[in-house]
Amino acid sequence: MDTKPVFHGSDIEKICEYYNLKKEDIVNFGANVNPLGLSAHVKKEIADNLDLLSSYPDRDYTALRNVIAGYCGIPADYVLPGSGSSELIALLIEVRAPKHTLVLGPTYSEYSRELSFSGSTQEYYHLNAADDFSLDVDDLCRVLDNGCDFLILCNPNNPTSSAILNGDMEKILSFCREKDIFVMVDETYAEFAPDICDVTAIPYTKTYPNLMVLRGVSKFFAAPGMRLGYGITGNRAFLAKMKEKQIPWSLNSIGAFAGEIMFRDQEYISRTRNLILSERDRMYREIKKLPAFKPYFPYANFLLLRILKPDITSFDIFELCIKNNLMIRDCSSFQCLDGEFIRFCIMMPEDNSRLLEVLKTV
Question: What is the pTM of this model?
Fold first, then answer.
C-alpha cells in the first residue's frame, strides 16, 4: 500500500532525495525567506570583520540593543537579544511558567513543543476559513476568561497570513492586563505587512507590562543561519528574569555585529518591501481569478490558498509543483486547519510567474 510522504517546509534535502531532484534546481516557496538573500552590504561587512570571532561579544550586547531600539522606536533597555526567536520563546515560557495557555491557531508548532516542556496545559483558539481567518476578539476574550494565564499570538499569522490590527490588539492587551494574562506576540512576519504600523504591537510595550514581542532576522533579512532574535518588553523585571536564565553570550560575535548592520541597511529594507508588496498584490489578484483556488488576503510574505476543486488534495498540488522544480508547502500537517490548503511565499517575479502558470493548470 502506497503511503504519501510528509514533508516540513524546510525539508528540501528529503524532498530532493525522494523525487530524485537537485537542490540547486529547486525554487523554494516553502521557507518564507526573503528571495533577495542576505544583503550584499552585510556580507561585505561580515567578511571584513571576521576577526571578531577571536573575541567574546559584549555580554550586554549594548551596541546591538541600541540599534534595535532605534529600528523599533523603543528604549534600549526594553530589548533582549538571543539566539533566534526559538531561544526567546523557550526562555519566556520558562520564566512565565504558565499553567493554562491559549494559542491562536492554526500556527507555528514550536509554541506547542516548548509549552509541552513547561507543564502548561494547552488549548487552541481556532481561526476559521469560513470567516477568512479573521479574529472575533470578544469571543477570544470570553475563552481567555476561562482560567487562561498565557496567550500566544503569531501576528501576522503563519500559515494563514492573516493579521490582528492595532485596534483589536489593544482590546486584547487591555483585557489580558485586567485578568493578569501575559501575552506573547511573535512578529516574525510583521515587517512584510502592507503597513507595519497597523500590525506591530511594539508601541504597546510602553503601556502594557503583560506583553512581550518577539522578532528575528530569519525571514525578512534572509538570515536564518545567523540565529539572531530579539524580545521587546517594557516589563523590565520580567526581562531581567529572562536574562538571568539565558546562557551567557548566547548570540555570537558575528551575529551581534551583523545585526547592527542589518537594521540600518535602509536600501535593503526598501528593496525588500517594494518587491514583496508589489509581487504579493500581483499574485493575490491573479489567483483570485482561478476557479480552483480561494486565496486569503495576505499580510505576511506568503499566501494561503484553499483548494476548491473536488478530489484534488494539497499533496496533489505539492507534487504537481515539485515536479516542475517549484517547492510549495502542503499545509495538511498544520493543526486546526480543516480542508485542503497550500501555502507559498513570494519569490522573484519570474519565479512567481512560473508558479502561477503551474497553478493555472489545476
Answer: 0.96
